[in-house]
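STRUCTURE:
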C-alpha cells in the first residue's frame, strides 16, 4: 500500500493513543489559544518529556503547529488539517462497505492516489 491509504494509516496510528486524543481535544476546544509543553503536561498529569513525544507525533502529521517565542515553543491546532483528516476518515467509512471497483489494486484506485 502506498499513497493516500498509507498516509491515512499513519494518521490513524498517531490518533490511536488516548493521550494524543486528549491533546487534540485540548487544542481543538481552545482553537484560538496556544499552549507550551508544560501547560499540556500539567493538564494531562504526565511528564514534560512524554508530552513532548506526543506533541511531536501530532506535529509530524500536521495537526499541531509550533510558534517559537524566545526559548519557549508554543503550539496551536491546525484546524484545516484536522478538518481534512476528518473528511478523509468520513470518506473511508463511507466507502468501507462498498465493493472495491478496482479489485484491491491500490495503484489503480483514485482514493489511494488523490493528493495528500
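SEQUENCE:
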Amino acid at each position: 500500500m502506498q499513497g493516500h491509504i498509507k498516509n491515512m494509516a499513519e494518521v490513524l496510528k498517531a490518533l490511536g493513543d488516548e493521550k494524543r486524543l486528549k491533546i487534540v481535544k485540548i487544542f481543538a476546544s481552545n482553537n484560538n489559544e496556544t499552549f507550551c509543553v508544560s501547560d499540556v503536561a500539567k493538564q494531562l498529569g504526565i511528564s514534560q518529556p512524554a508530552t513532548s513525544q506526543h506533541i511531536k507525533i501530532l506535529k509530524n502529521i500536521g495537526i499541531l503547529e509550533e510558534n517559537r517565542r524566545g526559548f519557549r515553543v508554543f503550539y496551536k491546532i491546525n484546524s484545516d488539517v484536522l478538518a481534512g483528516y476528518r473528511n478523509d476518515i468520513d470518506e473511508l467509512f463511507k466507502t468501507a462497505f462498498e465493493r472495491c471497483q478496482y479489485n484491491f489494486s491500490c495503484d489503480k484506485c483514485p482514493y489511494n492516489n488523490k493528493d495528500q
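REMARK: The longest strand covers residues 64-69.
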